[in-house]
Amino acid sequence: MISGTSIFGQIISILNSANVSFDALVTRYGNDRNSKGFTSMMQLVSMLFSHLRRADSLREITKNLEYCAGRLCHLGIASAPKRSSPAYANGHTSYMLY
Questions:
Q1: Rounded Cα–Cα distance for residues 98 and 95 (Å)
Q2: What confidence tens digit (pLDDT) does each residue in 39-52 have?
Q3: Is the four-CA dihedral 84, 79, 31, 56 of positive or negative sign?
Q4: Could you tell me which residues come within 8 angstroms of residue 19 by beta carbon, excluding any fewer than 6 positions away?
């Protein structure tokens, strides 16, 4: 069994370090106020993951997340979202958080 953290996990862990807390920024800008399961952290992880995988469409993003869902559960994505969840989140969240 492989022990340790993936490089992608290390990148995500920097966001919740002592200096910069992503959760504090989410609270400050109120992005998760009305979310029903697809949080800002899930959105960030899925968008970073899709950027690194060079995905071009929402269908490709969700399919890649489906294939890697077991390996991404430690990052907060237990199951792959439907296409409408990232689409809605990308259209309705504040850009100021990112």
A1: 6
A2: 888 888 888 888 88
A3: negative
A4: none
Q: Is 56 left (phi over 0), alpha (psi -120 to 50) or beta?
A: alpha
Q: Phi-psi region for residue 80, left (φ > 0), alpha (ψ -120 to 50) or beta?
A: beta
Phi, psi of 33 (to 5 degrees): -60, -45
Would you say 97 and 39 are in contact if contact means Cβ atoms under 8 Å apart? no
* pLDDT tens readout for residues 51-83: 888 888 888 888 888 887 777 777 767 777 888
Q: Residues near 11 by Cβ (< 8 Å), separated by ≥ 6?
A: 48
